Amino acid sequence: MREPDAIDRAILDLLCTDSRQPLKQIGAAVGLSVSSVQERIARLVADGLIAGYSIRRGAALRGARAYMLVTTLGAQCAVVAPRLAGIAEIVRCDSVAGETDMVLLVEAADGVALQAVRDRVAATEGVVSVVTLPVMVERFARQ
User: Fold this and answer.
1) CA distances, 141 to each of 36, 50, 116, 117 (Å)
2) In angstroms, rounded to a whole number, what is the distance separating the alpha carbons of residues 47 and 95?
3) Helix (H/G/I), strand (E/B), else coil: 103
4) Which of 17, 19, 27, 61 has its CA 20 to 30 A from that of 55?
5) In terms of pTM, does the model score above 0.70?
6) DSSP per-residue string spanning 37-98
């Protein structure tokens, strides 16, 4: 695997903004032909810099969102995370450094469902505390 150059990074940025944009449009933005863009994208996939393609739900379909800051007993993230993996509303789970051990991104149908997820997380073996930070307004997202 080689290090991505400025053009690779520009292609990645464009794909992060809109992964469905035509290769011709990407090529025009970075100064390459369609076939060159295809080759670079294939290499970025092969090198593991592109792991997949997805969609982001619009706010109307997302319902209630919150970040949950989880503290575990003795920083047992590797033990607790698999226990949380079965909760479908948890869309992201990151281990972090500091007083908080894990940060969860939760998307639920509404506030009641969000509270139910919080209760399940708090009741999970190995979880000491949960702080819930409801998302009030999404300003921007680059995922």
Assistant:
1) 28, 18, 26, 23
2) 25
3) strand
4) 27
5) no
6) HHHHHHHHHHTTS---------HHHH-EEEEEEEEETTS-HHHHHHHHTT-TTEEEEEE-SS
